[in-house]
Amino acid sequence: MAKTGKRGGSPSSKTAQSRTPTQDRKARNGLGQRGRGETHQVAGGDVPVLTTQQGIPVADDQNSLKIGARGPTALEDFHFREKLFHFDHERIPERVVHARGFGAHGFFETYESLSDITRAHLFQRKGERTPAFVRFSTVAGNKGSADLARDVRGFAVKLYTQEGNWDIVGNNIPVFFIQDALKFPDIIHAAKDEPDRGFPQAQTAHDNFWDFISLNPETMHMALWIMSDRTIPRSFRFMEGFGVHTFRLINAEGKSTFVKFHWKPKLGMQSVVWNEAVKINGADPDFHRRDLWDAIQSGDFPEWELGLQLFDEAFADRFAFDVLDATKLIPEEDIPIRRVGRLVLDRCVDNFFAETEQVAFCTQNIVPGIDFSNDPLLQGRNFSYLDTQLKRLGSPNFTFLPINAPKCPFHTLQQDGHMAFVNPKGRANYEPNSWGGAQGGPRESPERGFPSYPEEAAGHKQRGRSETFADHYSQARQFYVSQTPIEQGHIASAFTFELSKVETIAIRARMVAHLLTVDEALGTTVAQGLRLKEIPQAAQPAKPVETSLAPSPALSILGNGPRSLKGRRMGILVSDGVDAKLLKALTDALAQEGATFRLVAPMVGGVEASDGRWVDAHEKIDGGPSVLFDAVAVLVSDDGATSLMSEPAVRDFLADAYAHLKFIGYVSSALPVLDKAGVRAAGDGGIIELGNAKNAAPFVQACRALRYWERLKTIKNP
Ligand code: HDD
To answer: Which of 163-167, 305-309, 437-441, 477-481 has the lowest mean pLDDT?
Structure first.
């Protein structure tokens, strides 16, 4: 029996199998045994010698040390012990919220001096560049969940200014679910997987979530936002970001101006449709991170402008809502946005864990010239983030990690703790002290130090909420009426979908009651979509709903479309015999537009074009479904069409592009394939024949509309 376990060969021959011949030779002759930093020659060129954490060169990384070829492992194998020990400790707790994220480096550039409104160093000079790190995220899902979950996106920006780190820890939605941070664990518990069963993952379409929402009318405004297409963005590059809370800017004279922060994407906003989102999650769960990675790696650096909404106490007093209430926004039409600089992401991380995973944002990280407001959600956040960082990163010295450390000089008197690798030098570790010069250490500076705005604050200690926070429906309604009819349809569909996954009928009905209060037509549509047997009574608002708030066109995605294909990607389905001239004209036109493309072929090895040249493909047909592209073109030959017609993946490619209202360019040979997929070209302005090379550029121009919404009339709303 024992013998059967022996797979032929001596230990030395096994070693030889798993090493390259060069390594094998070097290991045998001892040339591999060099110190850290030295190199040795292998097939790939000069590489550093592998060492242990102690710097001891490793001779054999394929086999543990054994007593006899088939005997037990020796305890003294320090390399084995250390390698496994370290591996076993690789994981740190994922973020309790926003676990799944993706980050990149860049810079912020100030357009003009804002010294009249803030003394913040980064805003003093036109052209000042401040290094930045941004992490985008979803909220509810685990670290390994899919990118296209319907969810709020985190938009956290760390600005390494010359007077310390400033973090704007925002979202892609300008309001939040709750008004008081005490409720944060509740909303998050309700949104995440249900605790008894451990599912559903990364989705709010379940009883607990809608139970909580329907019992907390303050969530209603945000509920409308999360059921809109904002929560299924096409990519991070096409979404807005918001600081959400009201903050203060303080100038050198101590004058305060209220401010709300906005990030405006240069490429405009764009979202996918729900059915597309569901399919993207299967086809490429990393769709968003891959998009950002690809864009930056190819030099197409994503850009946002920082916008400020500036207002004073007088505006705050006369505004219909409380500027300290994070469930409310200030319409851009009331306070226009002043664009004061640009954020450019131009460098991917070197290492995901070291940078994206270990970056620690904190709303408390603000710099002189910026200050908090009394928004109770913000006040609570300020208290919370440090706990999370300590839990995740395990030591109060997480601030010294390169991704978290300021890029300006910093001198604290803090010391020791786990992983204290930057303890202060000198004798003094307290102040005041009698030691002068370098021995005396850093001192406080009333002139340069952070000045808190001397706002007067007084009142009775109490648990409770201001009356000014009591209107929960008016802005929800305003958001809804600010949407285009198509977007209103999407909101109604999203509510219907999510509530159809809620098993408790009473929760469905309670939610519909709120929607009836927001907008009767919306509530009725959802009730009918759910086929509720009885339409419930509209919910009773604590304050009458203000129906006269003017629509805010700035809140619509479609109403603010970029009408450009820049930064977007076309999927071009090709077969052997693809018209070489047309293909070139199309890819040239895309390049001209600033768009990219992927060639999708029956086999990833590529196709032979009509001129006999070989064209490499990017994707095999079932690896490149049309949901991954903004528009598609079908450039197949007659023979190609005949063989592709029976491919289910080809039919899906076209049927999905059609159902998702995408622009489809085709050559006449492709008509039978289109027909088989149920794509009706006749009378559809989004399906454009590419007879010859001249048609390529106009087709690309037509694609600027991004979707052919007219098609909705002939197909069911996807
Ligand atoms: Fe939060 C992370 C944004 C309310 C407590 N939050 C976190 C991240 C973002 C936000 C973008 C991820 C940062 C990263 O990429 O590492 N959070 C928001 C916004 C809120 C908000 C826009 C409302 C306006 N958050 C909020 C409240 C609390 C927290 C009210 C608690 C009182 N948030 C946390 C946290 C996290 C966090 C538990 C988890 C991971 C982390 O901090 O670093 O402390």
So the answer is: 437-441
Q: Where are the domains of the chain?
A: 101-194+232-400, 563-713
Q: Is 251 helix (H, G, I), strand (E, B) or coil?
A: coil
Q: Quickly tell me which residue has 């300020």 as its tokens.
A: 382
Cα of 359 vs centre of ligand 1, distance in Å, is 13
What integer pLDDT is reported at residue 44 of this predicted model?
A: 66
Q: For a pocket test of ligand 1, which of 187, 361, 382, 391 has the largest count of ligand atoms closer than 8 A to its C-beta? A: 361
- d(C-alpha 703, C-alpha 569), whole Å: 11
What pLDDT score does 439 carry? 87
Measured in angstroms, how far is the CA atom of residue 97 from the centroid of ligand 1? 7
pLDDT at 9 over 50: no
| Site residues for ligand 1, CB cut-off 6 Å | 95-98, 101, 135, 137, 154, 156, 169-171, 176, 181, 184, 244, 326, 359, 361, 377, 380-381, 384-385, 388
Residue 547, pLDDT above cutoff 90 = yes
d(CA 141, CA 156): 17
* Cα–Cα distance for residue pair 530/226, rounded to 1 Å: 19
- DSSP per residue, 639-664: HHHHHHTT-HHHHHHHHHHHHTT-EE
Mention every residue, 6+ apart, whose C-beta is less than 8 A from residue 636. 573, 574, 575, 577, 578, 644, 667, 669, 670, 673
Can you tell me the distance from the alpha carbon of 485 to that of 503, in angstroms, rounded to the nearest whole number? 29
Rg (CA), the chain: 30
Q: Just list the catalytic residues.
A: 98, 171
Q: Residue 4: is its pLDDT beyond 70?
A: no
Q: Is 699 helix (H, G, I), strand (E, B) or coil?
A: helix
Q: Contact 221/476 with Cβ under 8 angstroms?
A: yes
Collapsing DSSP states into helix, strand and coil, what is residue 304? strand
Query: Which of 97, 392, 403 most suits a substitution to test ligand 1, by most atoms within 8 Å of the C-beta?
Result: 97
Distance CA 121, CA 133 (A): 18
Minimal CA–CA distance to 631: which of 546, 712, 573, 556? 573
- What's the CATH number for 101-194+232-400? 2.40.180.10
What is the tens place of the pLDDT at every residue in 37-68?
567 777 667 899 999 999 999 999 999 999 99
Give the C-alpha separation, 634 to 667, whole Å.
Answer: 7
Which CATH number among 3.30.70.1890, 3.30.110.170, 3.40.50.880, 3.40.1010.10 corresponds to the domain 563-713?
A: 3.40.50.880
Q: Average pLDDT for residues 181-185, to the nearest whole number?
A: 98
How do beta strands 338-348 and 596-601 pair? unpaired
- Over residues 90-138, the pLDDT tens digits come to 999 999 999 999 999 999 999 999 999 999 999 999 999 999 999 999 9
- The answer to whether the predicted template modeling score (pTM) of the entire model surpasses 0.90 is yes
- Gap from CA of 248 to ligand 1 centroid (Å): 20
